[in-house]
């Protein structure tokens, strides 16, 4: 029996001395068959799966990215990193940088200020489901579990598709799509990017499993049968340990769980079941019965030559532990009090003037503009506190030092994982399916709610998320179902814009804009004279969807072309505003 793990971790504890860790990456198309079906995937340095990145807390990470894709742009986001002081390194294409053109290079440099389990992934259009993602682990020099655990193990979970994302999304976003709003359905599930689901264990020893969900769409249920798992961290933040038999990990979430191997010689099974259902708690949410066609029984292997006979089956539904009740292990605020600023985001699907299905916040989808919002914030002077200058990116201005509550009302019959860049929020309240929109008051879930960066919001229900505006920058808030991001399911938190005025950007970041033919100063359309002049703003997502496609023979971007087309269209038909829910 061969035990393979695509992501083998180095020594357990981090060193106390801060280092600079440099990676040189070329981003290439390669062929891989993680589930037995060969297809082109996006790899790094000619390899796929993409490499594990592992640093110590306090280290500076430098990643030199060279785009060798030829036909697509790219950009890499460091999911869960605060990027405090370096908002230009967040990798969110269209919010904090221009896309990196084929043939261009771009350097990310930032600090790993918190320990824990993270991941990196492409953040340009729907690119990461094509494979450009990997685990990112920050070791804690003062790891409270170091003495207890024998070893760290990474287990990544992902839905997987046999088609590339561009044709999948083009089909979804076609005005002729009769299955309106129905996202691409996965073809399979892969663990550790197609690596082994056997985890080497030693009798009586204790392990920390770092679960990461890389999915484009699906959550997953994870259970170790009768073995209790102790959940000690979520999304890179310690929680007061919670015991569970089953957890549900949504797209982009991470859980660190501690497991102690029994003293028996039996290889113990564990089950991972992909949850691609609209709402696992509600059989009426779907015309089909709730199913879990993609599931896998793996083993904690104490005896590689022994039997692998015990199995765990999917039986009916799952009842996972309620993560909204978790408490922070590091903060102790007894009462959180009132917020200074409350942002209400009502989510529902909608249709744009092209007849394209879209995902709307307060009636509007996010539409890529020509100038990244962070560059606009840096270059329009006093006007940067006026949301108009950012264009149709669902901008919200956050005042520095304020306590912010985001209330998400989900008017859809499915569950959605909401993610905030640049911050970890406390989940003050997150009721189950059918609670309706926010009633106007909060019944705080726990004394000191735990922090995380991605939270599941249940169907026809809501969540109240709190954070401190202590990180000047432009931070996306979006559903982490990548298919929904492609439908415009994002907002932009423009945080402490006064402190962003005059901000300087590295030359290679400016050059990236030049290479894709986009302006890098002024308002959303690059108007520098009058930032309130909205000429050239983009109102509609491109139809057909082009994803990250880029024609190297032309510096005409889809955004620039779209803006031109729209100016023509606006003249002929006065159809704005155009969004309906
Ligand atoms: Cu995983 Cu916008 O992020
Ligand atoms: Cu969604």
Outline the secondary-structure elements:
Blueprint: E1 20-32, E2 39-44, E3 53-56, E4 60-67, E5 76-79, E6 105-111, E7 116-122, E8 133-139, E9 151-160, H1 165-172, E10 188-191, E11 198-200, E12 206-213, E13 219-223, E14 229-234, E15 237-244, E16 246-249, E17 254-260, E18 268-275, E19 295-301, E20 341-351, E21 357-361, H2 373-379, E22 395-398, E23 403-410, E24 416-420, E25 425-429, E26 451-452, E27 454-457, E28 461-468, E29 473-479, H3 482-485, E30 490-495, H4 507-515, H5 558-572
Parallel strand pairs: 1-4, 3-8, 9-12, 11-19, 20-23, 22-30
Antiparallel strand pairs: 1-2, 4-6, 5-7, 7-8, 9-10, 12-17, 13-16, 13-18, 14-15, 14-17, 18-19, 20-21, 23-28, 24-27, 24-29, 25-26, 25-28, 29-30
Residues 416, 479, 481, 484, 489 line the site of copper (II) ion (CU).
Signal peptide: 1-18
GO biological process, one term: cellular response to iron ion starvation
Pfam families: Cu-oxidase, Cu-oxidase_2, Cu-oxidase_3
